[in-house]
Amino acid sequence: MKNAFSALRNIYLRLGALALVVGFVLRIVLLFNEQTVATDFSLIEWIEIYLLGAVNDLAVVTLGCIPLFLFLLSATEQKYKRPWGWIILALLAGGLCYVLFFNSIFHQYSGAARRIATAVFWYWSVSFALRLFVPAIRPYWTRVWFFLLTTIYVGAILFNGISEYFFWNEFGVRYNFIAVDYLVYTHEVVGNIMESYPMVPIITGLVLATLLVHHLLFRNVKQIEKPLNAPTWRWITTPLYAVMCLVAVSLISFNLRFQNSPNVYANELQANGLQRFYDAFLKNELSYRDFYLTRPTEEVADYLQSTYQSEEGISRSIAAKTTEKPYNLVLVTLESMSAEYMARFGNEEQLTPTLDSLYRSGLAFDRVYATGNRTVRGLEAVTLSLPPCPGQSIIKRTDNTSCTTLGEILAEQGYEVCYFYGGNAYFDNMESFFGGNGYRIVDQKQYTPEEISFQNIWGVCDEDSYRKAIRTLGELAQHDKPFFAHIMSVSNHRPFTYPAGKISIPHDAKSRKGGVMYSDYALGEFFRAAASEPWFANTIFLVAADHCASSAGSTEIPLEKYHIPAVIFAPGVVEPQVVEHLVSQIDLTPTLLDVAGIGYKSPFYGRSIFEEGYTERAFVATYQDLGYVEGDLLTILSPVKRVRQLRIVSTEENPHALEPVEQIDSTVLHHAIAYYQYSE
Fold it and tell me: Positive or negative CA dihedral for 493, 499, 502, 504?
């Protein structure tokens, strides 16, 4: 038994030491990331980052060893003795017959699930039968699987360190809800990674490092099966390991209270990425009333009724402003287009000449803020015109049909309604949402080979997408009905590849600036082509970003990372004008309907900027932090009923600089609660 204890202790200590070293090195590397390097930390924060961070890493690896411990528990000669060996073999054979010949539970999922289950039961059944009837192979089987599993553990620890580096480089945080969300779309995500990074040398280096580190850690372990066959060690180590797991869970839970610093980077560096991933997985939907501050329902309803001048709730009638032939409407949402890339907002690299030109020629919004940092949030804002909800976007939820959308309102006005997407609309549940709410979907599945000049993992390039839209709208214009087209671009997305010879930045540079410049170039080509169409003169365009290029910052909600461009453009219809005051992304489509003179019954939380009584406010959120901007205050509502307020202190270097307030403004706080509580 002593040898068994020694073997188990050494395995755990070696894997734990590796996790601590990788975690320590990763934190140092992340500190020198361009998003983090200028951040100051207090002495207490330094201690928390490295000391509590090490405790978190060790606790996570303790819990992560559960599958390995279960394998070690099973590595015993006892299970081969009669009658247990025959019982186990019969159960495995029965399971194999179940998945082969019956309508098993795996048939309810994809064909891959059934194939995987079949392969697993074949392996278990055949390998156990061989070990049962040929005892000589048992020690070799145990030894091989031990080394295979420990190699997987070593590789997983190293791989996770590399993955966390790249995720931080993209998002400025540990794994979060985005990482969980992307697991659903493995084809696009894996393809995006393969096209964005030099994966062959990375994987080669990872494999070599795994083999080397595993050799260094476990080269002295020769015959692991001998100590494991000791008869009594399981009865003592199992409860001991169970206690260790309980302590690990308690430590992780206890340390969460030290991750509430105003400095988000300090919180993220202290945390363990895998624990954050698990936490995000559990919190993919959050009940507002359970997790956030609330007010009495009657008080909230009264405030919103007076704000919207409605008879009940926020529903109100918007009067039509014209009886003439209705305008066609085109909404273009640009992938990841931050306002900071525009010359209009100080960029000197000439990345967005088209957008800057539109700003000079249309109704230009200087202070419009996205509701979130994902495409589904932007689509939710311009389609449903309501504040962001905690957890999953409504677009990602299963009950997302029969919503009152912009498309439905226009369809009731006699419009033909289309949604154009250059990729596969099943991604991010767009197909279910738009298709279930009356939109005709035109995505990559509708393209002929001749219509595709360039594509990457996300879909066809923006030029191809716009050309498809021009052709389709030309066909719709021949009908005696107006049309509404929502076009979602894709090219300004990692890996940032696009057709060669279009812009000054090489097509294979895979740079964010190249993605921005090409997206703007394609938008210019779209407007040049549209201007020659008969329907152009009777069409109003709204061009807006879905979200910014990055949401990383040293506060929960860095306001500058939500500042997006938006412009309504219609020569001869919309006079050039600059809107300098605060505008929310949810206000854009109500303003578009107002400019078009359309009357309708409004269920929208967004309001036209020209509506009498319009209130300047904006909604900015992550999947769990709900931000509300009013005046110079940013109010942040967080789970566990936390609230923070920051004052916007504009400086020449940063017009979105934030500083904590000394005392919470209760009036603004009540407004924030009212909007989020009532809209949930």
Answer: positive
